[in-house]
Amino acid sequence: MNWWIAGAIVALALGALVLYWLLVLTEGVYLGRRTVIWLYDVYARRYDNIKQYDPETETYFLALPVLQRLVAVRAPLVLDVATGTGRLPLALLEQPMFQGRIVALDLSRKMLSVAAEKLAPHGDRVALMHQRAESLPFPDDTFDAVCCLEALEFMMDPRAVLHELVRVLRPGGLLVLTNRQGRDAKLMPGQTFSHEALERILRDEVGISEVDVQPWQVDYRIVWAVKAGNSPAAGPLALEEVWRCPRCSAIDWVRVEGGWRCLTCEARVARGADGVIEAERLQGS
């Protein structure tokens, strides 16, 4: 009987460790996209406190380094993928020297609701979209800067996301990534890259000409990269000037009551009461 009890205890302990790995360390990524989204939805209201975000720290370690690398662009158009509660948009928009616009997207609808509350004072300078990262609804070579912070390892296909991030970045534009490191990175096979491997992918596969991997946090390094080539800055374009219709791929939107309508195919996309664009839910004509 004692052996049965000991075996049961060991089994319970192993089960608890597996659950901790699946739901905490890897944030549900091995259980599929829906689990990842559910977890972020659950913690949305507490997320900023859990991460211990501090405005001063965000300014000096995030906003200012980004702006220093965009100093030649008077009013940049920025895309923030997996924006969560709007960490990067808020840090940038609170800097007087930032005169650009931001498109920020995420698949956690509740995280976007929190972001909408925080970013409400900045009006149309930021557009929030409920949208996945593997198929970005923008033309090639669109944005002056594309960012994806503390999220790549939780994507279903990190490599495909890297290709999309660079595809929509204009030649000469700035790519800002974080790359997971340390013990937890080793516990996420297939989801993380060594710093050397990530640099090879960026240089050899997706068209990046300059890569600089720097220390940033205990669990992450930050990657500053520049897309090969050169092109004029996009400038502070409005969302309707760069957003492709998910049905017909046209850039032909008009604002209507409750959302947007594509003039080419009559597709409709709703706008939530909080201002978030429901791009994942294409409505009928």
Write a structural description:
With 285 residues, the chain is an alpha/beta fold. The chain has three domains: 2-48; 50-227, Rossmann fold, CATH 3.40.50.150; 244-283. The chain is built from nine helices and eleven strands. The strands form two sheets. The protein has a seven-stranded mixed β-sheet, sandwiched between helices. A hairpin with a 5-residue loop joins β9 and β10 (268-271). The longest helix is centred in the first third of the chain and has 24 residues, at 2-25. It is globular. The relative contact order is 0.12.
List keywords for this structure.
285 residues; alpha/beta; Rossmann fold; 7-stranded mixed β-sheet; 9 helices; 11 strands; globular
Helix and strand layout, with pairings?
Layout: H1 2-25, H2 33-43, H3 47-51, H4 55-69, E1 77-81, H5 87-93, E2 101-106, H6 109-119, E3 126-130, E4 143-148, H7 158-167, E5 169-180, H8 183-186, H9 195-204, E6 208-215, E7 220-227, E8 253-256, E9 259-262, E10 268-271, E11 277-283
Parallel strand pairs: 1-2, 1-4, 2-3, 4-5
Antiparallel strand pairs: 5-7, 6-7, 8-9, 9-10, 10-11
Helix pairs in contact: 4-5
Write out the strand line-up for the largest beta sheet, numbering strands in chain order.
3-2-1-4-5-7-6
CATH level 1 class label of the largest domain: Alpha Beta
- This entry's quaternary arrangement is single chain
Low-confidence stretches: none
Tally of extended strands? Answer: 11
> What is the CATH architecture assignment of the largest domain?
3-Layer(aba) Sandwich
Count of DSSP H/I helices: 9
The pLDDT mean sits at 93
What proportion strand? 15-25%
Following the backbone from N to C, one meets helices and strands in this order, namely HHHHEHEHEEHEHHEEEEEE
Radius of gyration: 20 Å
How far do the termini sit from each other? 67 Å
Structural class: alpha/beta
CATH topology title of the largest domain: Rossmann fold
Instruction: Tell me the domain tally.
Output: 3
- The share of residues in helices is 25-40%
